[in-house]
Amino acid sequence: MGPTPPDTVVVGRIGRPHGVRGEATVELRTDDPDARFVPGAVLRTDPAERGPLTVAGARWHREVLLLAFEGYDSREAVETLRDTLLEVPVADLPALDDPEAFYDHQLVGLATRLPDGTPLGEVTAVRHEGADLLVVARPDGGELLVPFVTAIVPTVDLAGGLVVVDPPEGLLDL
Prior knowledge:
By secondary structure, the chain is mostly beta strands. 7% of the residues lie in helices and 43% in strands.
């Protein structure tokens, strides 16, 4: 899968089929799935040749969102969509009310520095694994996972293209 185009953001990933009527589980990458995945919503895909996909139905099964797509009405048809990333245009995203909240795409590509100005690397991804983690590519080729919390990341300057990381002792040694 290629990198997400700069004008789109990933909102989900299609998982395994559910049942026999063409529903699939979705790994969510959005804070507002009920607004994002409504019937009739058109989603871009990665790989692009699998889409665009139109949501035909959405329902919750316990904690898992199940989606049906127009033209995919069997378990076998939905299986062909497994691992497809679902994307929406950045322009369609609502503005965030919280000045301390950021979309992942706003953070990727930012330079990271220590409070004294020492360069750390560049943010290449944001992982959501229980806690939010910034993935920072180090100039020496290594990778650093930084917990995205105010105590460790006191400054995010989108206009300046910079994130200040104030790591606890030992974090940079991992």
